[in-house]
From TrEMBL:
Thymidylate kinase-like domain boundaries: 98-273
Alphabetical keyword list: ATP-binding, Kinase, Nucleotide biosynthesis, Nucleotide-binding, Transferase
HAMAP family xref list: Thymidylate_kinase (MF_00165)
One GO BP annotation of this record: dTDP biosynthetic process
Transmembrane helix among keywords: no
Gene giving rise to this polypeptide: LOC116212797
KW Transcription (keyword) present: no
Entry's Gene Ontology molecular function annotations: ATP binding; dTMP kinase activity; nucleoside diphosphate kinase activity
Protein's organism: Punica granatum
Pfam families tied to this protein: Thymidylate_kin
GO cellular component: cytosol; mitochondrion; nucleus
UniProt pathway annotation: Pyrimidine metabolism; dTTP biosynthesis
InterPro entries xref list: P-loop_NTPase, Thymidylate_kin-like_dom, Thymidylate_kin_CS, Thymidylate_kinase
Membership in a protein family: Belongs to the thymidylate kinase family.
Designated name of the protein: Thymidylate kinase
């Protein structure tokens, strides 16, 4: 029987530090985040699950060992390498993220951008977060479909873990020259969890060290207009008042990498604006623009 590794994380009041949760396998074992409720992860090799703020100390136990650890501040960022520290590198693919409220048109425009880049002869792929094909993603999918209930802190860390489990492959693809069109990324995770009332800095902490997008396209739409579109209300977060809060937090997260596009324009006009911005971004990355880490400064 495989050993069980249990991380008991105190999310109560007190002195908090950022902890990187890195699990190393002894073959196969299960990793459990014991917060308000427990979440089980099947792990077959060393993997980073995320970064959380925890009260010190915490206890790490398994069938093989039991020891008390005191936490010091550590980060998940690996920005010391030249290609992640502002130093010019060789040509690479671009990391392009589409963000916006539910029913803002992200999925449609992502697919159109993929076809556009491929039509120009560029290597490109379309990614979506959450990636519901992974073990973590399946838990998220069940939650979003209202088939399960999870604590707000727990589901936030699951969303972050879902991005971390694809980070290495994302970097590999970009360095090989493939541009990635990504439907939702860390900004969504932080905006939606903050809208629930979680502290925005706490929400950002697990995302620190992920790859920073080269371009974020924000499809701007009033929540009331989004609610008028077909299919609205099918998932947990598609509630008008909640989407208004999400929109406000998106504005807080906006930075220099963002291009805001009016999502109420005709689809063809939106497509043209996105094509211009994306092609410029792809050319910059082919010219040696370095990769960087998200929220690392």
């Amino acid at each position: 029987m495989a050993p069980e590794l249990v991380l008991n994380l105190d999310l109560g009041q007190g002195e908090f530090h950022v902890l990187s949760l890195m699990c190393f396998s002894f073959g196969n074992f299960s990793c459990k985040l014991d917060m308000t409720i427990a979440c089980n992860f099947a792990v077959s090799k060393a993997s980073i699950l995320g970064a959380v703020k925890v009260k010190k100390p915490f206890r790490l136990t398994s069938n093989y060992f039991s020891r008390k650890y005191f936490v010091r501040k550590i980060t998940m960022s690996n920005c010391q390498r030249n290609d992640l520290n502002g130093v010019s590198t060789e040509a690479r693919g671009a990391l392009i993220v589409l963000e916006g409220l539910d029913r803002s048109g992200k999925t449609s425009q992502s697919s159109r951008l993929l076809s556009y880049l491929e039509g120009l002869g560029h290597s490109a792929e379309l990614w979506r977060f959450p990636d519901r094909t992974t073990s973590v993603g399946k838990m998220i999918s069940s939650y979003l479909s209202n088939e399960s209930q999870l604590d707000d802190h727990t589901i936030h860390l699951l969303f972050s873990a879902n991005r971390w489990e694809k980070k290495s492959l994302m970097e590999e693809k970009l360095k090989s020259g493939t541009s990635l069109i990504v439907d939702r990324y860390s900004y969504s995770g932080v905006a939606f969890s903050s809208a629930k009332g979680l502290d925005i800095d706490w929400c950002k902490a697990p995302e620190i060290g992920l790859l920073a997008p080269d371009l974020v396209i924000y499809l701007n739409i009033l929540p009331e207009k989004a609610a008028e579109r077909g299919g609205y209300g099918g998932e947990r977060y598609e509630k008008l008042e909640f989407q208004k809060k999400v929109a406000a937090y998106y504005q807080i997260l906006r930075d220099a990498s963002w291009k805001v596009v009016d999502a109420l324009l005709p689809i063809e006009e939106i497509e043209k604006q996105l094509q211009v911005a994306v092609l410029d971004c792809v050319k910059a990355c082919q010219g040696g623009k370095p990769l960087s880490c998200l929220w690392s400064s």
